[in-house]
Amino acid sequence: MMAVSQQIGNWLEQFTKQEPAESWLQKLRENAFTRFTELGFPTTRDEEWRFTNVAPIARTQFQPAVGSFAGAFSPPVGVELLFINGCRIQTELLELPNPLPKGVAVEDLPGAENHLGRYADYKNNAFVALNTAFLGEAAVIRVKRGTVLQRPIEITYQAQSSGAPFVTHPRVLVIVESGAQCSIVESYQGSGRPGAGYLTNAVTEIVAGDGAVVDHYKIQRESMDAFHIATLQVALGRSANFTTHNISLGGALVRNDIGVTLAEGSEATVNGLYLVNGTQHVDNHTVIDHAKPHGASHELYKGILDGRASAVFNGRILVRKDAQKTDSKQTNKNLVLSDDAVINTKPELQIFADDVRCTHGATIGQLDAESLFYLQSRGIGKAEARGLLTQAFAQDIIDRIKVPELKDQLEKVLAEKFHERSDH
Amino acid sequence: MALLEIKDLHATVGEREILKGINLKVNAGEVHAIMGPNGSGKSTLAQVLAGRELYHVTGGEVTYDGKDLLALSPEDRAREGIFLAFQYPVEIPGVSNMYFLKAALNTIRKHHDLPELDAMDFLERIREKMSAMNMDQTLLNRPVNTGFSGGEKKRNEIFQMAVLEPRLAILDETDSGLDIDALKLVAAGVNAMRSADRAMVVVTHYQRLLSEIVPDFVHVLAEGRIVKSGGKELALELEEGGYAALGLQDEAEAVSKA
User: Fold this and answer.
1) Which sign, positive or negative, has the C-alpha torsion A43, A44, A47, A51?
2) N or C: which end of chain B has fewer CB within 10 A?
3) B188-244 tens-digit pLDDT
């Protein structure tokens, strides 16, 4: 085993080379880095990381990413915040037609002092600690009280690999004030020539005020040699309504930690779709924390596994003593297309209140033989029929996406993927 | 030459032999009814002809349009003009009925070197057939058979048949679960498809469908063999005397005996 100090050395060097920030931020960084050195990277002996081995990350000497703007890159239409290799690209550069809408502010870090690091806990997660230690250029967005946004806020992280392994620590903070309503689309994309891989170590915090309505999407399309580790931590106010869809398509090793804390009468929908093939590995850990009464949560995660890929779903639902009348439902469904793919699925219900309704269920299955025959009996070839049924399995997640452009785009991506799979 | 010729066909599911030597000859233009008690092998015969892998053909041969039918995959049988109307049409959530049918029609057209139809041409082509089957546009936009009533599913099968224009249609208990109005609608759809170059094999337990779709020949299947063949009057005989008049037993006994 590699000594912890050896793992830390490279990060320490990067940390000390970092330009100092103003005092509150510098203190936050230092506390986080200290915590990181104490924690070290998790191993499969940690229950939370039992099925996800991050040793390949621990032993790689990642370099800080160099922000560069390659002119050839054309951003998706409507992007409001674009980061390339962790570096924010000024919208003027892109000559975007859409300035920020009324009621939305992109803020500097100082304005975020009261929120940054308050939700995503760096004390128990080495990756969050590392991200916080390198907190620099964050996307901090405030949607002001009562503002209703028609268009989604798009935050795009583009990694352009150039050979040597590098790391970015994307950090997003969205503050949606009371009564405001918005959609947020977070995209992570990889481009450039395949190299030694890169690490995206992302942390997103979302704070939704009382009665706020937030519709969040995360689309992960990293390069196939990338590591993607991400934490999404959400704090909901009274009667706030939060929906997230976590779509995971790329990456060699992917881990998502998603946590939502509900207040009285708030509602959370936590959905996800993961597609893995080859030797890809994706791990989704979700924690839904019902802290107060009358909360509702709905969770649907669906996975499609092919090749020698593996996936983990771990869904914890915590219903605290005070959270009476909680209504919670969790479902994880997996479609396994090959004999060598592996899925580990585990619900974890921790219920301390006595007047609640909580259900959970997990399924692991193959394509339905009768459905296949039905399609074939109408002339549709077997490979195409398999592709159609596989896409159909994913469709009910896609159908829940409320941003039309995003839905169309994902439908196309999936159709291509399944068509490509049906060719062999 | 017969369009379909079945010689001494044997088939099993698992260890159990269900078809025990079927012989049948169907010419283009003819409608053949296959009747028989429950559990006699009627549906198995229909599924074997369509190529369901669940059943293993252990003997005999089937020639369709001069080709060895058993050597063809289910999709190739469909492309060559065989259509099975399912007794229990499968619900496929996530695949729209329209997308499915257009894909099916275009694959079959491609097989015959015909140009594929785009969405507009496709809609144009199916409009009349939809109204003939009383199919609402909303049924087309819904996922295949998903949430359809029993009658809607059967109508959808006959509608698909009308669109795909097969040369050999096999109708597996298309009457089951239908009220008389739905039955008449479905039968009218089938009758509209009768033509000199198309053959039909109608599998049914009851005579009432055959009052609507009048067959040229009736065969009685029992314990995996055709035990009696005749004209349309044979169906009426069965209606009056029941299968017992032929010394045949229905499912319950047949199963307990097996």
Assistant:
1) positive
2) N
3) 999 999 999 999 999 998 888 999 999 999 999 999 999 999 999 998 888 888 888
* Apex B61 CA angle, B60 and B64, nearest 5: 160
Q: Does B90 touch chain A (CB under 8 A)?
A: yes
Q: How far is B75 from chain A (nearest CA, A)?
A: 4
Domain ranges of chain A: 4-263, 368-424
**What ipTM, to 2 d.p.?**
0.95
What is the total count of domains within chain B? 1
Q: Strand pairing partners for A143?
A: A104, A176
The conformational region for residue A319 under phi > 0 = left, psi -120 to 50 = alpha, else beta, is beta
User: CATH no. for residue B54?
Assistant: 3.40.50.300
Which of chain B's residues have a Cβ under 8 Å away from the Cβ of A380?
A: 75, 100, 103-104, 107
Farthest-apart Cα atoms in chain B, separation: 56
> B123 and chain A: CB distance < 8 Å anywhere?
no
Interface test with A, best of B80, B87, B92 (most A CBs within 10 A): B92
Residue B148 sits at the chain A interface (C-beta within 8 Å)? no
pLDDT score, position A1: 44
Place A112 in a pLDDT band, splitting at 50, 70 and 90: confident
Structural element, H or E, at residue A4? helix A4-17
- The pair phi, psi for residue B29, each rounded to 5°, is 90, -10
CB contacts, 8 Å: A400 with chain B: none
Domain that holds residue B85: 4-257
For residue B101, list chain A residues with Cβ-Cβ distance below 8 A. Answer: 378
Segment B15-37 shows an average pLDDT of: 96
Q: Report helix angle A382-398 to A404-422, nearest 10.
A: 160
Closest-CA distance, A268 to chain B, in angstroms, reads 24
